[in-house]
Structure formats: C-alpha cells, structure tokens
Specification:
Helix content is 44%, strand content 23%. With 169 residues, the chain is of the alpha+beta class. Helix 1 (64-98) crosses helix 2 (106-119) and helix 1 (64-98) runs antiparallel to helix 3. It starts with a strand and ends in a 7-residue tail after the last helix.
C-alpha cells in the first residue's frame, strides 16, 4: 500500500491555502502475480481551511489476463456475428424456396444472390423435392448446420490458442 502527501506551494500560509494530494494503491493478490489487478484511489483536497474542494477518484486497472480475456471474448462475438448473418441469409433462402416465393421480387432475388455462394458447396448432397413452386432445399439446412459448427470450432480454437492456462489449486 502506497500513500503520498504533497504540498506543492509551502511558502503560502496553511490558513490561506491547503493543497493535499493522496494516492493509495491496492494490489489484488488473489489471482497471483501474472493476473493481478490494481485499484488506485486518489483524493485531491484544495482551497483554504474554511473553503475546501475535494475531488475523489477510483481507478480500476485490469490485469493483462483480464485484458486478454476481453479481447478473446470480443473476437468470439465477431465470429458468431459474421456466421449468424450467413445463417440468417441461408434460413431466409430456405423459407423463401419452401414457400415458393416469387423470383420476380427484387428482395427475394437479392437474398438468393447473397446466399448462393454459401449454399453452393452443399448442393447435390440430397435431392430437392418440389411441390409446385415450392422447393425443399436440404442444402440450405445442411449449410446452416455446417456453418454453426465452423463458427463454434473457430471460437474454441481462438480460446484455446490465446487464453492463459488455468492453474489447478
């Protein structure tokens, strides 16, 4: 624990002006040396003895392990967001085809155009039964499942590669 007290202008009488600066640093040793966090408490007192202005501040400085965990969590969120968009496109494609949506609609064509590259590797695995204008495109459902697995796999690899090792106590 560290405490500092400074008076930057000692030539001024104590009754005229009082400037005090206190800083207290508290280290949290519960996590160990590599994962310590620091809490810094600062208090500034300025003014005459009768008229004091007090400004207090508490700063929490996260450890390197905490910052790394936050970076990994944000990266995983980005991965899930990107693959979530792909899966929504594929789901819309499946629904539009299953309900026989009109290809004259610009929005339907837009969704088909965006989702085509993602469903293309899976076409031909199963047959596509048709009922009039409606088509059950199983390739879209297979693609959704595969992209969900890829997203989960990427997130786990990222977590395993960059997360600090766990210490068993």
């Amino acid at each position: 624990m560290t405490q500092q007290e400074n008076n930057p202008r000692p030539e001024i009488q104590a009754s005229e002006r009082r400037d005090v600066y206190r800083q207290t640093t508290v280290d949290d040793d519960r996590v160990g040396t590599a994962g310590t966090t620091r809490d810094v408490y600062e208090e500034h007192v300025a003014g005459t003895a009768d008229d004091q202005v007090i400004r207090s501040e508490h700063v929490h400085v996260p450890s390197e392990a905490t910052r790394r965990a936050a970076m990994i969590a944000r990266s995983k969120q980005i991965i899930y967001f990107i693959f979530g968009i792909i899966n929504v496109l594929l789901l819309l494609r499946f629904i539009f085809l299953a309900l026989g949506a009109s290809q004259a609609s610009p929005f339907v064509n837009f969704i088909y155009g965006l989702s085509r590259p993602f469903v293309l590797p899976f076409q031909g695995i199963f047959g596509e039964p048709t009922f009039g204008d409606a088509v059950l495109e199983w390739a879209s459902l297979v693609a959704i499942a595969i992209y969900m697995l890829i997203a989960y796999g990427l997130a786990r690899v990222l977590e395993l590669a960059y997360a600090p090792p766990r210490v068993n106590e």
